[in-house]
Amino acid sequence: MTTVHDVTPDQLRGLEAAGEAALNAALGRLPAHEREAYWASVRRAYNAPYNDAVKKPRAAQARAV
């Protein structure tokens, strides 16, 4: 299995560019608000360990809607 340590920096940059191009192509078919929702969920997921641990209970949120 190839790991990040087995590739050269140039190869890694090429893989990064190919991955970004594939992601942009897939997201390109979505309307702007759906693309923004996708990126918002990614930011939230990657920031999850750092987010405030205090959250509103779901039942309270459901009643408020």
UniProtKB/TrEMBL annotation:
Protein name, UniProt field: Uncharacterized protein
Native organism: Methylobacterium ajmalii
